[in-house]
């Protein structure tokens, strides 16, 4: 599975994109479960937030758009894993 995350916005207005291929990873099962949970409808969509980040997560043919204040725990963990930094 290929998981992609794009982060945009923030104080500086920079965009960051990263992708992760789970094919050969020993934690592929955990990442697949995180991606499935991250793409599930959360019901929260109050953003965008001033100087906050907006995210686009794409995995397994699905896409979700979310913002800093509305991230679910699964989205936050998946974003951190793919971008290699905290969300």
A few lines on this structure:
The chain is of the alpha+beta class. The chain has helices at 28-39, 73-83, and strands at 2-9, 16-21, 53-59, 62-67.
Report on this structure:
It contains 2 helices and 4 strands, in the order ββαββα. With 87 residues, it is an alpha+beta fold. The chain has a 4-stranded antiparallel sheet, covered by helices on one side. Strand 3 and strand 4 form a beta hairpin. The chain is globular. The two termini are 21 Å apart.
Keywords, please?
globular; 87 residues; alpha+beta; 4-stranded antiparallel sheet
Pattern of helices and strands: EEHEEH
What number is the mean pLDDT?
88
**Termini, distance in Å?**
21 Å
Helix content: 25-40%
- Taking pLDDT < 50 over at least 5 consecutive residues as the criterion, the unreliable ranges are none
Largest sheet: 4 strands, antiparallel
Structural class: alpha+beta
Strand content: 25-35%
Task: Give the helices and strands, then pairings.
Blueprint: E1 2-9, E2 16-21, H1 28-39, E3 53-59, E4 62-67, H2 73-83
Antiparallel strand pairs: 1-2, 1-3, 3-4
Helix pairs in contact: 1-2
């Amino acid at each position: 599975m290929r998981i992609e995350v794009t982060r945009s916005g923030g104080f500086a207005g920079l965009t960051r994109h990263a992708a992760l291929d789970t094919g050969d990873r020993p934690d592929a099962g955990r990442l697949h479960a995180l991606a499935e949970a991250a793409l599930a409808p959360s019901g929260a969509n109050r953003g965008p937030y001033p100087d906050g980040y907006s995210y686009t997560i794409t995995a397994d043919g699905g896409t979700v758009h979310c913002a800093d204040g509305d991230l679910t725990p699964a989205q936050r963990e998946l974003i951190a894993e793919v971008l290699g930094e905290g969300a």
